[in-house]
Amino acid sequence: MKRAGAARAMEGSVAKTRVVVLGAGFGGLELTTMLSEAFGDGIDVTLIDKGDAFVFGYSKLAVMFGEATASSVRIPYSRLSKPGVTLRREVVTAIDPAARRVTTDRGSYDADILVVALGADYDVAATPGLAEQGGEFYSVAGAVRVAEQIAAFERGRAVIGVCGKSFKCPPAPSEAALLLHDYLMRHGRRAQTEIALVMPFGVPIPPSPDTSTALLKAFAERGITFVKDALVKEVDPAGRVVRLSDGSTLPFDLFLGIPVHRVPQVVVDSGLAAHPHDWVPVNKQTLETRFAGVYAVGDVNGVGTAKAGVFAEGAAKVVGAAIIAQLRGGTAPEPYTGQGLCYIEFGHDEVGKVEVDFLSGPKPQGTFHGASVAVAEEKVQFGASRRARWFGA
């Protein structure tokens, strides 16, 4: 069965350009919003996502620590209504980038321009014992399960561990450690507990020495052990111990894990990525893949930025501007610079901020803004502005 976009939609005698966007995260939502604003019903945009709702990644921390419910952080895709944009809740089963054709569990779509923004999948099975332990908190369902474990954690050792070198939101493990400290303090349990954070870097945020210094100081003040340059390679639920990449072990009574990230299998099968752990190669300035008319934005690509929503949004702005210029005959946009910012929860109701430029210079550079209540309020406005822009609420 052919679906909307499989044949050219006609407006009078003029064919509409067909843009198919895979994935309704930061990248997909920003791109489709830009195209709708620019062309309205004069363009045929199909946005495909298997989910039924959008969730800001940082909302999972609120779910973990009992400050929000899973249902309260969901923004249903049914609220998305934009001229020229059709949202399809379908599972992408095949991508033919050479033909710019997408097959889903409900039909097929042909595109003049194809944008792959499917993000990164979690490979829980890549770390033995992680699935059995049930300690991952990067999915909403995982955050719900972990919330129950945290609530029951009264004494002993807590280990927050990263299982793969490339993962979404690099500050999140540090945030989890600091917020766990706050949670245990509020509930009178901190004196009976220990917290260790295992990360694959020498410092928490490598592009920003100032941010790393501030986090390490916060860890020291709160008695949080920072285990650097290590990955969690195995979780032993029965023995209550994790095995690290350097051969050492850490005992735990509570384990909170960041699972190995990988390219979605449908993207690997398409030939856009060579291997589940090799991200889609793109032109770093334009986000174009090696296939004409096919772009990859956000976590799915290997452009070299951190895997975080704000960088997907920035990439989408470049691709959107390029599509608009192409269709209107304008000049190409400025190259993608890999600039963005990340908010960092420091606990005590204070939030810091790091602005990072990944691609403009010879190496990534980060600028730190100290934790404060004012930055915490700025973070709230960041989320509210995106919600209003993409969903009108």
Helix content class: 25-40%
Overall mean pLDDT score?
95
Report the span from N to C terminus.
35 Å
Q: Total number of helical segments?
A: 9
Give the uncertain stretches in residue-range form. 1-13
| CATH level-3 fold name of the largest domain | FAD/NAD(P)-binding domain
- How many domains comprise the coordinates? 2
Specify the overall morphology. Answer: globular
CATH architecture descriptor of the largest domain: 3-Layer(bba) Sandwich
User: How would you classify the helix and strand content by structural class?
Assistant: alpha/beta
Neighbour order of strands in the largest sheet = 7-4-3-11-21
- The CATH homologous superfamily of the largest domain is called FAD/NAD(P)-binding domain
Q: Proportion of β residues?
A: 25-35%
- Can you count the beta strands? 24
Radius of gyration: 22 Å
Characterize the structure shown:
The chain has two domains: about 180 residues, 3-Layer(bba) Sandwich (FAD/NAD(P)-binding domain), CATH 3.50.50.60; about 140 residues, FAD/NAD(P)-binding domain, CATH 3.50.50. The protein has nine helices and 24 strands. It has a five-stranded parallel sheet, with helices on one face. Strands 15-14-13-19 form a four-stranded parallel sheet. The protein has a three-stranded antiparallel sheet with strand order 8-9-10. Helix 5 runs parallel beside helix 6. The longest helix has 20 residues. The N terminus is likely disordered.
